[in-house]
């Protein structure tokens, strides 16, 4: 299965161009249709002061100002998105979503193969719902691109964080089109004795599965020696110049990970390279 539809979430921040660059390059590589989704910020003109406006004329003027600002924001986002798509000769469409209410449910109906979004630490979508919340609500894999990421080419050196969970297996399936085109893939197993049944060769089954799909890979079981698993993963990715991490999000219940400071939440907050999460 290839990637045929990519959605990119667009906000009003300068970092949106990083996401659009990344998404259009990915769409070109896979011959995919690209959907730009502009989420309007919740407060367009007026703020708290707008609630104190009185009089029919003043209210009409405020509404006119808000509508004009909204139209400007939409036009600006559409122009930038379409220029990025045209530069890569990518088929595209542009959509606008209201900031509250049914947006999460509508995002769930996208039928996209992949959603490109900002890392949560980069003021995700004008104070909208966190990326992991929307990903869990939609079931679509999210590729989170840090604001300062500069390599806009599709990933070539991919790191998979493998712990033999259902979520890890789902992440591999969702990222398979990217893995198949990468020049190298590493299956990293941190503390394999904690996740792999006794007597099994760590990573053997998943390695055979990926090899049958033509993925060029190595398996590397490593020990944390008491260090936090996110720290081990990020250090390994940096030292081996990986340009993407694939992760099964929330192998434990999300509430439990929040309480315990889980791997998913730590990587969402700390990863300086693109992170593909799937659940």
UniProtKB/TrEMBL annotation:
<dbReference type="InterPro" id="IPR006015">
    <property type="entry name" value="Universal_stress_UspA"/>
</dbReference>
<protein>
    <submittedName>
        <fullName>UspA domain protein</fullName>
    </submittedName>
</protein>
<feature type="domain" description="UspA">
    <location>
        <begin position="157"/>
        <end position="277"/>
    </location>
</feature>
<comment type="similarity">
    <text>Belongs to the universal stress protein A family.</text>
</comment>
<feature type="domain" description="UspA">
    <location>
        <begin position="4"/>
        <end position="127"/>
    </location>
</feature>
<keyword id="KW-0614">Plasmid</keyword>
<dbReference type="InterPro" id="IPR006016">
    <property type="entry name" value="UspA"/>
</dbReference>
<dbReference type="Pfam" id="PF00582">
    <property type="entry name" value="Usp"/>
</dbReference>
């Amino acid at each position: 299965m290839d990637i045929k539809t990519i959605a990119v979430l667009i906000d009003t921040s300068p970092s949106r161009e990083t996401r659009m660059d990344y998404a259009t390059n990915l769409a070109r590589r896979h011959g995919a249709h690209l959907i730009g989704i502009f989420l309007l910020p919740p407060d367009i003109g007026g703020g708290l002061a707008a609630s104190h406006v009185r009089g029919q004329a003043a209210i009409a003027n405020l509404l006119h100002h808000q509508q004009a600002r909204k139209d400007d924001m939409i036009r600006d986002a559409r122009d930038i998105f379409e220029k990025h798509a045209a530069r890569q000769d990518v088929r595209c469409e542009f959509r606008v979503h209201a900031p509250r209410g049914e947006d999460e449910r509508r995002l769930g109906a996208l039928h996209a193969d992949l959603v490109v979004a900002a890392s949560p630490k980069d003021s995700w979508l004008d104070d909208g719902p966190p990326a992991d919340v929307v990903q869990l609500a939609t079931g679509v894999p999210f590729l989170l691109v840090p604001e300062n990421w500069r390599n806009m080419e599709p990933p070539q050196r991919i790191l998979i964080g493998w712990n033999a969970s259902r979520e890890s297996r789902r992440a591999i399936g969702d990222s398979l089109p990217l893995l198949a085109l990468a020049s190298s893939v590493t299956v990293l197993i941190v503390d394999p004795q904690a996740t792999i049944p006794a007597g099994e060769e760590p990573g053997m089954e998943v390695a055979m599965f990926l090899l049958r799909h033509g993925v060029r890979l190595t398996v590397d079981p490593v020990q944390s020696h008491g260090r936090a698993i996110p720290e081990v993963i990020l250090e390994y990715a940096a030292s081996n110049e990986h340009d993407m991490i694939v992760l099964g999000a929330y192998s434990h219940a999300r509430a439990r990970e929040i309480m315990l400071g889980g791997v998913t939440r730590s990587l969402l907050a700390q990863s300086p390279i693109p992170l593909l999460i799937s659940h």
